[in-house]
Write a structure and sequence with these properties.
The chain has a single domain, classed as L-fuculose-1-phosphate Aldolase (3-Layer(aba) Sandwich). Helix content is 37%, strand content 18%. The chain is built from 5 helices and 8 strands. It has helices spanning 3-27, 92-101, 114-123, 160-169, 192-217, and strands at residues 37-41, 54-57, 71-74, 107-111, 128-132, 148-154, 177-180, 184-189. α2 runs parallel beside α4 (160-169) and α3 (114-123) crosses α5. The protein is globular and about 60 Å long. The chain starts with a helix and ends with a helix. It binds 5-S-methyl-1-O-phosphono-5-thio-D-ribulose and zinc ion. Zinc ion (ZN) is lined by residues 35, 91, 110, 112, 183-184. Residues 33-37, 57, 59-60, 89-91, 110 line the site of 5-S-methyl-1-O-phosphono-5-thio-D-ribulose. Residues 16-210 form the Class II aldolase/adducin N-terminal domain.
Amino acid sequence: MSSNTIELEAIQQAFETLRRVKETFAARGWFPATSGNLSLRIKTDHQDRNRSLIAVTVSGKDKSVHTPTDFLVVDLEGKPAAASQLKPSAETLIHTALYQKVSKCAAVFHVHTVSNSLVSELYKHRGGVTFKGHELIKAFDIWEEGASITVPIVENYACIPTLAAEICKVLDSRVPGVLIRNHGIYVWGESEFAAKRHLEAFEFLFDYHVKLLILSKN
Ligand SMILES: CSC[C@@H](O)[C@@H](O)C(=O)COP(=O)(O)O
Ligand SMILES: [Zn+2]
């Protein structure tokens, strides 16, 4: 089999995986008003990380609808790997920055939810939000009893290279996610499975926290 055929198959596989993730998250209402974006590192036969290709969602589409043009391939600079009319996510440079900065990063997911936005607004002044003693912290592969994690929060800069740089400044190797104030969350993992598990755990913690705050006010 030629390396072109292998690469083509890897691209198709990545698109299919992203399609399944997109469908699952859309069913949960995690892509309101065309927001959110997803990417996956494409497994190719070459080992050079700097030559990696990334499958990413096309910008501005209704992510609850399945079409033949929902994804495209970009390089680590965020440039389309082949001539295309399709526009990669406006936030592609955040994805590419994470693939370059986080070791073994293989998938990056971004969603806007009411709970992640509320938590980001409530705790931005502290630079992060801390969760302690939750069973679901184990989803981040942290197993000590009573463990705590702090999810960093950055300002929502309109300039994407600035936003990407700010995210890279606050990375914590134990915590695979960063909140952006009144915007959403970026989450990653060593596989699509791990990134999805991480995102579900973060969203559980945010929902729990917001509901606890409401209940404690009554
Ligand atoms: C329509 S609001 C959301 C966008 O501004 C952006 O934050 C977002 O998440 C989606 O952008 P996209 O270019 O579709 O990947
Ligand atoms: Zn966004």
